[in-house]
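@channel sequence for tomorrow's demo:
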Amino acid sequence: GGADVSAEGWNRQIDAFDVPGLAAQVASTGCGYFFLTLGQNSGHFLAPNATYERLAGVTPGMCSRRDIVAELADALAPHGVRMMVYLPSGAPAADPVAMKNLGWEWGFEGGWPQAWGTRRTGRRLAEFQVKWEAVIREWSTRWGPKVHGWWIDGCYFADEMYRHADAPNFKSFAGAMRAGNPGSIVAFNPGVLTPIVCHSEEEDYTAGEIDRLFPAKIGPWVERNGHKAQCHILSYLGSSWCAGERPAFSDEFAIAYTRHVADHQGVITWDVPIQKSGLVPQPFVDQLRAIGGAMGRAPNGAMGKSGSPR
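structure tokens (generated this afternoon):
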């Protein structure tokens, strides 16, 4: 749903989300974990969060009544597939009311998304960060051990916002995500970087976002100041992130690169489009099944995915 979708329209869309169908698709690929986006720039989120609605001051609330994360985690668990979630590090860029009330500012001159490559204007935004951690803490405690990990996007202003001895900092940020499950694994995305880097000593695995420059050098660990994070890569099988009617790569390439990463004890996550129904387009499911089969992963997640994070 976009920013122009009403709260009721969003809830109708969420009510139509086919959790059992998506869980069956995911399990059929033999993967060991699955990431779901909680929400991004539209301001809509696919799980309730009273803290967000109170702090963002958006009426009516833009969080769904239905908790897709909890339902999907329950549906995936019998298949041995672990639930992971994606969330941006900042307030939704298309919701000016939420941005103002939360105290969020984009840290590049000219705003988002036109500002790549322009002058940095980032500030610590401690008041915002305390609020954002409270939002995350509510979700984490709500889900408890059902959610096994977090991937936080847009941590571009780490020096300004997170690299501090006192909270709020990377440690308190990670702590909010682990409030409901101390064993949750965490990654902070510094942007598209090759080679892969560890962005924080609080990371358990690297965010690893790449575009079409696939790194050949992979290792079990990526270090930062003596801290080791599991080497993890994230790329997309479609034409871009969550886009395309069919995979842009041949099965042979997708299989070969997945095997290359796994052979070097790394981890790879493939992004695929998802439809309003909640289902992944069948051509992408077919390719993921081909990858899983080539990696020796039985359907239903019986063996998990090679080198899953942790």
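heads up for whoever presents: Residues 9 and 304 are 36 Å apart (CA to CA).
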